[in-house]
Each structure stands twice: as structure tokens, then as C-alpha cells.
Amino acid sequence: MNFELTEEQQMLRDSVRKMMDTIATPEYIREHDEQGLFPYEVYDKWVKMGLLGLAFPEKYGGAGGDVLDMVIIGEELGRKGYDFVGAFGMSIFNGLNVLRYGTETQKKDYIPKIINGEIRLSISMTEPDAGSDVGAMRTTAVKEGNEWVINGQKVFSTAADSDNNIISLYVKTDPGVHHSKGVTLFLVPKDTPGVTIRKLNTLGRRMLGTNEIFFDNVRIPDNHRIGDVNKGWKCLLSGLQFERLVTIAGYAGNAQTVVDDALAYAKERKQFGRSIGEFQAIAHMLADMQTQVSAARMLMLNAAVKTAKGEDALMEISQAKLFGSETFANVANQGMQIMGGYSYMMEFPMQRHYRDARSTTITAGTSQMQRNVIANLMGLKVK
Ligand SMILES: Cc1cc2nc3c(=O)[nH]c(=O)nc-3n(C[C@H](O)[C@H](O)[C@H](O)COP(=O)(O)OP(=O)(O)OC[C@H]3O[C@@H](n4cnc5c(N)ncnc54)[C@H](O)[C@@H]3O)c2cc1C
Asked: Candidates 156, 158, 321, 361: which one to mutate for ligand 1, based on the most atoms within 8 Å of Cβ?
């Protein structure tokens, strides 16, 4: 595997890093995290740089980039904080479903608007009783004339309340059959009558936030349906690998920042007349942290290169997701220890990394679910 970046990829990485250093300052991030504010100003910059269009074909106003470009961006955004990766990725991942399964009219309508920042897309699969077992969802859409009537409840819908958001909503359209044959995908603008969004109070990921959404006789025209009726499960699965890769790249970027910050602190902080990094206990923690992050990054790149070649990379992506999220959570925990009492103060970003990292072994498929996938691919039959 060749992990060397081309000159163009290096330019992309450097320009994203420079832009993020300029706009996503520590003060900006702290304010947005503390107050639960969506990073609109940063998002607008991404739009101006054309980053929202990178994954889409030129035909619809995109730049025709590949998965490696996307993981480079994911890693760079992750350096500032994992929530930036979520803000960046969500519209793209859901927009790619429009590209794959939408009609020509839908593609021409939605994709340019995603690219120019006119609309955002969030995703709603999870329900109170349907988490890892997402096929157990109970929200329904019933056809009446040329409209669909939606009733039910979703939970943990990240950034669903952001300005101009459209919810990529997975619902049952045939509750009587196996979920793989009875789910349909709809695009529901967040201010559609009958939609109520309530922000949840979370430990971390506070810039984007996550929401409960109630659907009470919500009426949506049939042209808001993406793909065929009862074929939504295919849409749901099709984007997951790509989404996971960009997400995992974000873990690697954010975990590296944790190590960099902890290392800088260990070099500077003096106790007993010497920097704490001279204590072997701390030095070894940092050595282990960097080794784990480098290994997580290699697993991610390995999966990305395989995906870019068009090969099936479910095993590699699942391993990279499992190891990347657990590494991020572990090093953030160690980073807290190294920074001592100051890590616990809200003015230092380590506590934010720690809070945000904790979500990553749960979201986008829990660690247990990744282990199930890996074990099944090893020929075991895990229940
Ligand atoms: C911050 C945040 C943002 C999120 N954003 C979104 C979003 O935008 N859209 C969306 O649709 N969802 C979102 N989610 C939901 C997320 O995908 C779910 O939380 C996740 O799928 C797990 O579901 P659950 O929380 O119901 O846990 P459960 O599925 O109830 O799991 C509880 C525990 O049981 C374990 N478990 C469950 N089944 C098995 C099994 N078969 N084998 C072994 N162990 C098992 C799990 O690993 C876990 O440890 C978000 C969640 C969070 C916390």
C-alpha cells in the first residue's frame, strides 16, 4: 500500500489546515462548544473553498474528488475537533444517496444546493427502541394520493435543527415484512408542519448537538422520496462505508491533536524541578499514545486505499472504526491524566476532546457491532 500523498493531495491538506487555523480559533471553538452553536462561519468557508462539492461529479457542480481526498479533509477537520467532521460529512453522505438513488430532477435540484451551502442534510435512522437494531424502527409513512403521511419518533438526530436543514428520514413503508424490504428514504425539510425538533442535553459533541424529532401526520409529496418504495435499506447501507472512512479519519486527526497537546504540556509543565515529560511514567504514556494513534491512522489509510481502488473493504473499515474510536477515547483519557487538574478546566480543550471522543465508540456502529462484523467475516456466526 502506498500512503504517500501526491502533490495535489498535499496542497489540499495544507489549504484546509491553513483555513481551519485561521477561522476555527481556540476561542471560536470554545464559544461554540459551550453555547451549543453550529459552526456556520466555518461551514461557509468550506462552501467557498468548494469542499462541499468535492465528492460530487462535475455534472452537478462538484469537483469529482475521490475517497482519499475526503479522508484527507476528514483528518484535517478532526484536528480541530471531531464535531467539524460531522458538520462537514453529513450533507455529503446524505447527498451521495441522492446521487446514487435520486431521479435526475432530484439530483439537479438538491446536489447544487448542498454544494453552495443553501441546504444541509441530517440523518435520522435511530429511534428510542431501534439503535444498533435499526431495522426495528417503527416510524411509518403511508401513501395517501400523491402524498406520504409520516408518524413516529426519531432520536439522536445530529444537527437536525441547523438552519435550512433537510432530514434524511428512514421510515417503514411496509411494517409487515423484513426491514430490508420495508424501509423507504424521504427528504423532509425540518420546518415541515407536524415536525417537532427538541434538542437533547449531551455530554459532548455540543457544537452540532443531537435531537429528538416527533412526526405528527407530516405530509410530504411523493417527489421527496429517494429511491424506490421499500428500497431504503439499500440506501442506508450503501453510504455507510464511505461515511465511516471519513469519520474514522476524523478520529485520527482529533486523536493526534490530543497527543500533540499532551506532549506540549508534558514538556512545559514542571513539578519536582523538572518537566513532567521527564518522568518515565508520563513519557511512556505518551509513547504508547503516539504508537496507538499512528496504528489507527495506518488502519484508516489502508481501508481508504482499498476503497479507492474499488475493492470491498468492509473488514478493513470495521477494524479501522473499532480501533480508531477506541484509540481516540483511550488517548483522550490519558491526555486528561497527563494534564492533571488543568485538564478538568473548561478553558483547556482536553476536556472537550475527552467528551467528544467518548461518543465515538457508540455512534456510527458501536464497538460491539464492529466486533460482530469482524468476527462474522472471520467465519464465526455471532448473534
Ligand atoms: C452523539 C450522538 C450522535 C448521534 N447521531 C445520530 C444521527 O445523526 N442519526 C442517527 O440516526 N443516529 C444517531 N446516533 C445514534 C447512534 O447511532 C446510536 O446511539 C447507536 O447506533 C447505538 O444505539 P443505542 O444508543 O440505541 O444503543 P443500543 O443499540 O441499545 O446498545 C446498547 C449497548 O448494547 C450493545 N449491543 C446492542 N446490540 C448488540 C449486539 N447484537 N451484540 C453485542 N452488543 C450489542 C451496544 O454495543 C451497546 O453497548 C447518535 C448517537 C449519539 C450518542
From this structure: 156
Does 363 sit in the ligand 1 pocket, CB within 6 Å?
yes
Residue 132 Cβ < 6 Å to ligand 1: yes
Q: pLDDT tens, 181-198?
A: 999 999 999 999 999 999
Is 347 catalytic? The answer is no
Rounded to 5 degrees, φ, ψ at 103 are -80, 165
Longest dimension (CA), the chain: 78
Contact (CB, 8 A) for 97 and 40: no
Whether residue 244 has its Cβ less than 6 Å from ligand 1: no
Dihedral of CA atoms 302, 303, 304, 309 in degrees, nearest 10, equals 90
C-alpha cell belonging to residue 6: 501526491
pTM: 0.97
Percent of the chain that is helix, strand, coil (3-state, to 5):
55, 15, 25
Residue given cell 435540484 in the structure block:
109
Of all residues in the chain, what percent carry a pLDDT higher than 70? 100
Query: Are 185 and 228 a contacting pair, CB within 8 Å?
Result: no
Whether 112 is in the pocket of ligand 1, judged by its Cβ within 6 Å, is: no
- CA separation (Å) from 33 to 83, 159, 251, 344? 9, 13, 18, 15
| Domains with residue ranges and CATH for the chain | 7-119 (1.10.540.10), 121-232 (2.40.110.10), 237-377 (1.20.140.10)
From the CA of 159, give the closest atom in ligand 1. 8
d(CA 162, CA 139): 22
